[in-house]
Amino acid sequence: ARPVVRIAAAEASHGRLRLRVAATAAAGLGRLEAWVNGVPLPSQPASGTAAEGLFELLLGPGENTVEVAVVDTGGVRSWRVPNPAPARPAAGGLVAACLGVSRYRDAGLTLRYAAKDALDLRLALGDGEADVRSWTDAEVVAGVLPAIAAHLARAGRDDTVVLTLAGHGLYVREPQARWLFLPWDADPARVAETGIPWSAIEGLLAGCAARRRLVILDTCESGSLDDDAPVVAGLSIPGARGLRRARDAVAEIGLAGEFRASDRSRFVTADLAGGSGAVVLASSRGGEPSFESDAERNGLFTAVLLRALRGAADGVGVAGRVRDGQIDAAELVRFTAAEVSRLSGGRQRPTIDRDNPAADIVLPVLPQGE
User: What is the 8-class DSSP label of residue 279?
Assistant: First the structure.
């Protein structure tokens, strides 16, 4: 039988919440778990067939959703039990890391605008008091990941963390199905060994206290992949590029040369549940090409994203088009999905993976670029 958990008592005071949790499990208790706004907290060990535990939680700004669960010794988890928590005034800043690789050590992997995507997002997000850094081209190697993680770890609990990646991505099925981001020193003949796996990207958030986490991917194969969808893995053969499939798409849509297909291979595995607690906004869905805009000198998705952040997405999908000077995740995905799909003739459709449906991602409208 599935174990059972209930909230025996809850007491809130000065931004803190004390939860007394009672759990039972016929197979024996293993651990008690809790989440605040979808972000997991350290679990507590439990034993016997019935026990109680105490969680002391720090609440974030705005509305909070707290959930608890219990896992028995066999690994079976109870249903999550929610507990409404009081709202706190909005607060917090922005900490962001922007990565982009255009010039690879292997010249055959060269892209046009991925590094510029990272630099432009850094400039846009870094206006004001935000703490934003960028890493481009030869700076983007596996050895720099600890420095990026340390930068993101500067964020406090009430801050918002944004991590952006632009460049080559690749979905591989062997020896195990996973998504890879290709660093500057990637070897096309050994992508499984030289690519940076999604688990390492997700790990950049492991030491981060912020409970608002947004990951933005302008890479190919960045969206959730359906089992029945064709997989475009243009870099799986040494020397091959994803450009061929995307060139065909350009010819079919007749984009008149304004948008060229990028050789960014796309996919981020949808197996994010219970992991980083992040909201992942991807430039396209599995099996679709990604495009670049020569007019904007950016990836098509990034060009539209910058417009969205500078106010074009404010109020999108809200009755009466109410502009409040802020852009939430829903407005962001509504605008980018509609506009990118329109500009690409329906061949590139941004998508959102809500590993954390409770995350309240809100960004201020950014100043207009030059």
Answer: E
- Which of the pair, 366 or 104, is modelled with greater confidence? 104
Q: What is the bridge-based pairing of β-strands 279-282 and 259-261?
A: unpaired
For residues 327 and 315, give the distance between their C-alpha atoms in angstroms, rounded to a whole number: 7
Give phi and psi for 351, each to the nearest 5. -145, 165
User: Could you tell me the domains of the chain?
Assistant: 4-88 (2.60.40.10), 94-364 (3.40.50.1460)
CA distance 34 to 358: 13
The pTM (predicted TM-score) of the whole model is 0.68
* DSSP line for 181-229: E--TT--GGGHHHHSEEHHHHHHTTTT---SEEEEEEEEEE-SPPPTTS
Residue with tokens 């219990």: 70
Q: Please say whether the beta carbons of 259 and 327 come within 8 A.
A: no
* Buried-state track 341-363, b at ≥16 Cβ within 10 A, e below 16: bebbeebbbbbbbbbbebbbbbb
> Distances from the Cα of 174 to the Cαs of 63, 180, 292, in angstroms?
42, 12, 29
Angstrom distance (rounded) from CA 182 to CA 172: 12
Task: Compute CA distances 33 → 105, 199, 269, whole Å.
Answer: 45, 22, 24
Angstrom distance (rounded) from CA 172 to CA 181: 11
182-194: average pLDDT: 93
Mean per-residue pLDDT, 208-222: 84
